[in-house]
Amino acid sequence: MIDIKNPQEVASVIDQTLLQPTTSQDQVLRFCEEAAALRFAAVCIAPSWVHQAAKVVKPSAVRVCTVAGFPLGFETAELKVSAMLAALDGGAEEIDYVVNLGAVKGGDYALIAAEMEAMRRGAESAVVKVILETGYLTQQEKKQLCELAVITGLDFVKTSTGFGPTGASVADVKFLVEHGQGRIRVKAAGGIRLLQDLEKMVIAGAHRIGTSAGREILAQVNTGQNN
Question: What domains does the chain contain, in order, with CATH numbers?
């Protein structure tokens, strides 16, 4: 459990995120410069900006994260792997990819497992987070996806893209932590904009927080605003 009054400990669990489609290169570069100064865990940016982001954050400990199959997840596994490999070649160190939700709803867990295995194999030692988009899923679907992610050796299960029907919830984080049984980490993302929201997710068991409001959350730490 991090010290919620310590700005650096709070920053260390945040994936500072900028995934709006209209974001320009200049905006990305300024965003990454600020993230490096504030020492977030990672910057999560669009694949087209990975190379530029990697140059900016290279002197810092901030990692470059990008997405694959985002935000709908309906690309083939081959396309997701190809996108991931291109991002890793460009300097990304972490990949957040969206699970094939149509396959989940069709009960095709063999396809899901094959996709997870392909992403794990292609990533080698890079961090892979599978986005479940929990707002679309039943409890049984969440459970099965979490268990498959454990079996296939992924690093994180992530709640949401931020573009789906719901964001992160304490209940979902607790559920994923329970079914991960300490064998996989949980990233909470979607709608987390306040320090008190971040604290609730961390208490529930989240290891990373995806948010576009990292700067604002750190400002709340510095001013003691946790209410």
Answer: 7-222 (3.20.20.70)
